[in-house]
Amino acid sequence: MTIEAGQAVLHRCLRAWDLELLGGSWTTPSSCLARVRRRVDDTLAIVKVPLVEEERVGSGVLAWWSGDGAALVHAIDDDGAVLIELAEDSDTTLADLARHASPPAWASDQHATRTLVSAARRLHQHPQADPPAGVVPLRRWFRDLFSRAEEVGGFFARAAALADELLEDQRDLRVLHGDIHHGNVLWFGRARGWLAIDPKGLLGESTFDYVNILTNPDRATMLRPHRLIEHATLISEVSGVDRNRLLHWTIAWTGLSAAWYHSEHGLDGFAADMMRVGLQAEQALREST
């Protein structure tokens, strides 16, 4: 959908859902958004119009969760436009907690990770009958890694081989958020707590939903010495997933993420940082045997 078409859908939703536009709308590469007031009950909300298929699928998944662990969708239309409850303004985000953690315990970073794991677990506990249309199987999600591995080899080839093994033997299949990180779990007030937003909408092993926590919220945090193994252990303890299996999925995920960025920017910057995390996971697995 073009930006112009997205704006047209946005204004149609304002009329259909009896909304007052607060300020101007804004666009991202994937969505048109606007902050609004619902005239029916005077509450604030966000209208999000997807411009790409990935966001349209995510809208459907968000609605399917029915506010159970995720932001509540008040309304959704045939184009995937959604009217979503608005998070509270907060002085402290989960990213802030992780970034501003202090040694030696790095306690606030650990608190952020526990919160993210708890948010993901709530989503996974949602009844899995009748999953929403369009959710993407994990094997399809990993296709860019497989193609990059054939071209480049090295770490990409090892990550692709491991991903293939994991995908052939997936456990605890769930509808996945697909992008659980410090910016996608927000505070919605005391009554609602920490809730997820902006899902990708994947289908696969629940363990995969925890790997992105290990590569966020920023470079300094994810590459901090010993953080990977400490937080993999923490995630395992809180979620119940096997720590070594989580590390295997981390290698696969960092390979995929590096493949996405490598194709555009070469093997430097973010792609290189993701590979460093993957290499740390490989080393941790060698040391555990």
UniProtKB/TrEMBL annotation:
Gene Ontology biological process terms from the UniProt entry: secondary metabolic process
Keywords, sorted A to Z: Kinase, Transferase
Known EC number: 2.7.1.72
Broad EC category: transferase
Domain of life, source organism: Bacteria
Entry annotated with the keyword Kinase: yes
Molecular function terms, GO-annotated: aminoglycoside 6-kinase activity
Record has Kinase as a keyword: yes
InterPro entries reported for this sequence: Kinase-like_dom_sf, NH2Glyco/OHUrea_AB-resist_kin
Protein name: Streptomycin 6-kinase
Organism: Microlunatus antarcticus
